[in-house]
Structure formats: C-alpha cells, structure tokens
Fold each of these.
Amino acid sequence: MPTISVGDLKMHYLEQGSGDSVVLIHGNTSSSVWWEYTLERMGDSYHFIAPDLRGRGDTQGPSADWTVEMLANDVHGLLEVLGVRTAHFVGHSLGSDVAIQYALDHRAKVKSLLLLNPGWVAGDMPAEVGDESRVQAMVADKNLLKLALRGIAMMHPDDERWERLEAASLKQTDEASLRGPAALKAWVVVDRLHELAGIPTLVARGAGDQFIATKAVCMKIVENLPDAQYVEIPAATHSPNVEAPDAWVAVLRQHLESVR
C-alpha cells in the first residue's frame, strides 16, 4: 500500500497485477478500501491502481477547496509519476465524475470508461442531498455519518467487513466533507459529454438506487455521450462494488474484455 508525492499531496494508493492498466476511483466519503472486493475477485489479470482521493483515506494534503477538476488532476499526477500512459477508468459515484473529468482533460489517455452509480453531470443535485446543514450535522456527529454510509450500501451485511469499510470512510477530513455540496453543484459537464464520443463507455447502476444515481441521472449521461451503454445490477443500491461484488465484477470483467 504505497504512498507517493503528487503535487501538494502524499497520495496513497493500492496497486495489483500486470497488463493493461485499470484505474479504480472511489466515491465520496469512501476510499480505495471500497475496491478491495473487486481486487480480490479480479486477481492479477490487469494492472489495477486504486488511489485515495484528496481528503480521503490515507492520502495527506490540503482538502478544504477541492473540485472535481482538482481530483482528476491529482489522479493524472499519480499516473504520470507511475509512468502509466493509457488506462481504462472505472469510477464509483464521485469517482465516476472524476473519471469523466479526466477523460475530458486527457482524452487520448483513456481506453474506456465504466461509470458505476455516477453522480450528477448537470449541476442538478437534489436539494435534500446537497443540504449543507445536513453535511454539517454529519461532520459534528459521526453517528449520523455512519447512518448515511449505511444508506449508500444498504444491502451489505452488518459484519466485520462493513466495519472496515466504515472505518476507511470515516478517514475523510471534515474539510473535504463540508466542501462536497458546493464542489458537486459547481461541476456541470453535460454539454461537453459529446467530446468523449468514441471512448467505449458503460454506465452501470445498482437497480435499487433511488436517491443518488437514479435511472434519470444515469440516462442524462447515456443520452448525451454518444454510444454509451447502460446496465443495471440487481440486489444492489448505490454501491454494487461492495453490496453485490460478484455481479459487479462480472459486469467489470465483461466490459474490459469487450474493449481489449
């Protein structure tokens, strides 16, 4: 579990396998730990890189003023240091936003996109989700944050592995949490998605996600990114990568094999 200097960060990441590079980008209030189920199942079939984003996990550095563009630039810096020229990009939730932004900034470096329960691309986050007072309350009372985490992975068993996921998520800095609503509302790229035409793109969604990556949110991407495909994963809500890892990995594996 190496850490490397990237700009103003000491960036922590997981790395596994060899061959074509696959970058796994976690969501908000999360970390690379949320990709452990995926890595266990995929083995060494690809060169996987799963960074902890700014303000999250074991990455250290300033986090109060993050933007989606900044997070994408951090990932670019990491890949530059590691000497990765091209890769497949897989994002979960906020990580999907970061993957899209990376592709807009560095199109030639992106072999494919797999967007798992992606976030809003048109600045249309529902008011109740982006309520700053709600986020402030969760920062002040981590028990409320724990309840919110349960809400994004409702079908994960309440066991020791959940405790590990929860502990990893709680490493997110308060500054990064408080910045979330403003950063996500400010990120509006729906009118630029056509620029990604030609990049094989799959939008995947836990079928039970009714609050964040709703079908309408996903369709906004599919309808504006030429030739993007859509699939639903049953028995999962917002986090199929930890709720239904076998079904999720089957989708991931099929996607990567289809774009080789």
Amino acid sequence: MRLGKIRTPFYRIVVIDSKKARNGLSIEEIGRYAPGKEPSLVEVNSERAQHWLKVGAQPSAAVTKLFKLTGDWAKFTGEGSTANTVAPQPARFDKKANYEAAVKAAANEPAEGATTAKQKAKDKLAAKSEPTKVEEVAVSEPSKSEEVAEVSEPTSVEEVAASEPLKSEEVAEVPQEVTTTEAVAAEEKPVE
C-alpha cells in the first residue's frame, strides 16, 4: 500500500484480498518499506509473513523481492540463503536524550554568567559605580649625570640670551600689549 508525498513514497506491506483496490481495506500489516532513506528501510514481521505464505497468500513481484532481501522467501521455499541482507539503519538522533543532557549541563554551570535583565542591570550599575582604573606609569629616579645636566642649563631668558647670540631669523616679534587673565575676565563680565 503506497503512502507518502509526491516523490517521497513509503509503502506498507499488507495482506489484502486480491479483488480489493491498492489502497483498499487490508487484512493485516506485516511490514514497511521506505525506498527514500539511505539505506532503504525494509522491516518485515517474519513470523506473520511465514504464516500468510503457508496459508496460501500470493505475494506481488515487489513484495517477493523484499522477502528475498529479508530471507523470508528462502525460509518459505527452502531455496537460497535465509540471511537478512538488508543494511541496518543508522542510529537515530535522540532528541529527548540530547535535551536531557543539555539541561543537566546547564544545571552545573555557575549562576554568575546569567543573562537575565536583572543580572544585566546589576552588571551595568556595578560598571558605572567602579572608578576607572588609571594606569600608573613608573617614573624612574633621575641619574646623577641627568641632575648635573639640569643644573648647568641656564634658567632665565637673560642667561639664554647672554650665552648664545641669536640670529635675526630666530628672533620673534613680541606683542606690544600683553593681556593677563584678570584683564580678559574683566572684559567678559556683562554690563548691568
């Protein structure tokens, strides 16, 4: 009996009256055949198949080939090997076992890695309240040769001018009027 979608059939191996339609009322289902799987799925209840063959049921050509693959035809006729030559199906992915393993693994994880809204808010608040860490740069003690060099350098403008004569290109113009910060602050006050 053919079932399934277009281009993906699967069949039920059934015992049926020869006068009935292909998908008509069956007497008993004795197996399944799914050619679309790799390897093809062939399952036959050998005990029930032998019973119906002994009673006189006539298998179709396709079912006879399936019986030959499973070894049921050789058991009935006594010809050939009775070994099942159908390739076994690979182990199926067990969703329930995979789910249970994931739940068990999740139960063992630490709670601090939670991603709930409450936990995110706590982390954000903690990040804001923590002062930013400033990296301190280690300042080394100046060596004695550097200290001597610093002392020997002139510290005032007059000493620099006296020690080195300046070229005309290096002389910069000094502005006539020098403003102090107090004068600038007094100018910016609004008049009432």
Amino acid sequence: MLGPLEKVTPRSVFEGREIVVATILSIVWVILLAGYGAGYFGLLGDIAEPRDAAFLEVIFFLIVLVLPLAFVWLGSALIRRSFQIQDEARRLEREVRDLRAGGSAQSQSGVSQPRIKDNRVETLQQRVTELTNHIKQMETTITSVRQMQAAMQAQTSTSAQTPEPAAVASTPEPSDQPMDWTDLLRALNFPRDEKDAEGFRALRLAKRDEGTGQLLRAAEDILNLLAQEGIYMDDLRPEIAPAYDWRMFAEGTRGSDVGTVGGILAPEAMKRIETRKESDQIFRDTSLHFLRRFDIMLKNFTEGASDAQIQLLADTRTGRAFMLLGRAAGMFG
C-alpha cells in the first residue's frame, strides 16, 4: 500500500535538472538584457541614437539584471530542496510501513514486540510529520517569491507608463546654448511624451544647473508618489494668482495674505494627500524637500522674471505640484 506522499506527489520532469534549467534561463536573460542595453545606450551604431549613460540608468539596469537572476536561482534552490525533502519523506514512510508490518506479524504469532521498536516507529512518524510541514513551508515560500516577482514587474510597468518623472533620468548632453526662461519653464513642465524633443533638450540644459537639477529630482520624486495616489497634474485646473502675490510669497509672506498663490482647490486630492502623509514618513519628507527646493528656486526666479513668466511658471506641472502640496501644508492660510 502506498503512503500519502507517494500517492499525491509524482516525480517531476525537472527533478535533477534544476541547475541546468536555471543556467539556461540566466544565460537567455543576460543575452536579452545585453542586447536591449546596447540599443538603449546607443552602442549599436545606427540602430539607436547614442546617449550618455546616467548613473541612475546604470543602477536601474543592474537591478533589472540581478533581481530576476536571483529569483531564478532562489527558486531553483527551493525546488531542489523540496525534491530532497519529498525523497526523504518517501523513504521514512516506507520504513514506517515495514516496521508496522513486522510488528503486526509478530503480534499475530504471539511474540511480544520490543519497546525499542515502538519508540523507533514513533520517532519516524514524528520525522515524517516534520518533513511534511517543511514541504508545505517550501511551497508557501515559492508562492511568495513568485508573487513578489509579479508585483515588481507590475510596478516597473506602471512606472514606465508615467511620462512626467521618467524624463528626469536623462543625462544632459554637452551644449553651448545658454539657459533661457523658455527652456527653464519647459523643463519644469517636463516633456509631454516620449516624442517631445524640445522638452528633453530643455531638461538636459536645466540639469546643468545644480539648483535647478535638485528641484527637478525633487519634483520627479513627488510626482511619482502623487501618481501612486492617482493624482496627476494634468488633471488639475488651477486659478493662477497675480504675479504680485507670487512675488510677495517669494519675499517671505505667508498665510491668508498670499492665499491666492495656492490656486488649486481639489478636495479629493487633498484628502488623499493628508491620508498618505499621516501613514508614510517618506511621503512627508519628500513633500517637504520639494517645497523647500521650489521656494529657493522661486526667490531667484522672481528677481529677473516678468509677470507673464511668473504666471507661466505657476502653471507648469512643477508649479501645480507646489500649489497643491503647499495648500496641504497650510502655507497659504
């Protein structure tokens, strides 16, 4: 008569071939990623436009390279260990059946069974129970690893579909063109889509300035976090305050005197922001850092900008994020 493990657990075609399968998958993944990376960084001649490899882009590619390989080899090790535990469980079950059969035969013949035999049976039964529990834990771990991998792939796909912050990862190309107001405003608004060549050019120029580059990175971070809450700057319809009020704010005036500067009234978005701030320290810190960087930039910008340029600044995606988060922080009374 077969034991429970032998009845429900068939021999897998992958048993004994875990390392071979993991090696093949790893090689295929490395080749595919190497080909994509060569095209992405412009190493294939005319196939792709050459571009500088930014530090963050290199880190991203390293993560994309290492994490799937780690999951493959971790899964291979877990599956291999699972097969080993199943084999040991089958062997112990066979020993238990043999001992029980021997004990039954001795009882029928009138021969008393030694106590040591009973102890051995109990020990083997406990061992079988422990191995069965280990198998269940291994299966749970494998399921968790697969769920983590699926979640990471979904998050990567979601990030790739957000055009606003993704553009900031670009590295500025060397250029002799001076940074003017039009380029600065275009950079603070981020490229509209992947075909917005002027937007990407303005970003590269803006990132050459240390202060502006810090603001752009802070804006990228907070726009990503707001997008996670379903809040997008293009969906907001601000009422742009007069340039005079913006100049007063830049000079340090706060409260109701500059209440018109916070020209975005979005109760649903404000509620989501307040809820996220209460539960997420990273969101709070990122929001405060962005507000500080924008405030520093605004002081410098208003010194030489015209009234029309100040209002255009307020209507950029970065400006809208400032009005929304500033009102959430109580900066406008």
Amino acid sequence: MSDKKTNRFSLSAEERRLHSRLHQLLSEAGGLLHGSLIEMARRCGNPRCRCASNDAHKHRSLYLGQTRGGKTTMEYVPKDQEQTVRRWAADFQRARDLLEAISRQGWRRLGESKAKAKAAGKAAKKKTAAKSAAVGKAAGKSAAKKAPAPKRPRKKTTRKPTTRSS
C-alpha cells in the first residue's frame, strides 16, 4: 500500500457503496448520539397512584446512558425529545456499523497488499539467487550459502531450595 490518498476509483465496488452510504447518512442526520437508550419504570411514591399497587402501571421514562473512562452517566430524555434522541442514537449506530464495514475492507486490502509484496519479494530473491549462482559458476566458485554463526551456550542458573516454616 502506498501513502498516497486513495481515490474512489481505486476502491472496490463494495467499498465505494459503503463510503457513499456513510456520506449520505452523515449529510442527512440531524445529529448523532453515542449511548444506549434505557427505559426505566418507577413508582412515584404517591400511595393513591395506580403505580403503587400494580407493576404494569409504573411510570416510564427514557434515559441515555454512556460509559466514558469507566464511569457510567445517564441523562434523562424529556418526552418531547424522545423521538429525536432515538433517531440520533440509531443514526450513530448505523454510522458505527458502516465504519466497521469500511474498516474490514481496509484490513482485507492491507492483507492483499502484503501478500502481493511478499510474493514480489520472493520472486526478486529467486531472481537474485539465480543470478548470483550463474555468476558464481562462471567464476568457478560454489553458490553455497554462508553457514550461520554458532549459537552461544546458555548461562546455567541454579535455584536455591526454599524451606517452609510451620
């Protein structure tokens, strides 16, 4: 892979489709919210309220929860803003999914690029080896490989036995 900026024509059809969908989502989204929507059901504390005697009639409220730096925060979402917050959170999730798909395509391209480079390196190495073998034979020398350096012996260590006192 090169350091040059990738133009859209060098991308696969799938990558172009993903980039286009992400661009469209970001241009149409009124906002993005990272977090999880949590619906809470509570009793109000009034003994005469229907929530006091029946779990099905608890008061429901929506919160947006998020964990940052190991600390979870929850923000109350007013009733009149619930639809907007739901849409923004859903748009954020769609954008995140598209970014993940684009990233997978990038990993795939990186792997392909590395495989091509490795194959080209092996081909160049064979070509160089064949060339040096031909030069070595012409000069009457053998094209034997250089022997590896001998390994140094490991330093022996002794452990002292441990004694347990009861």
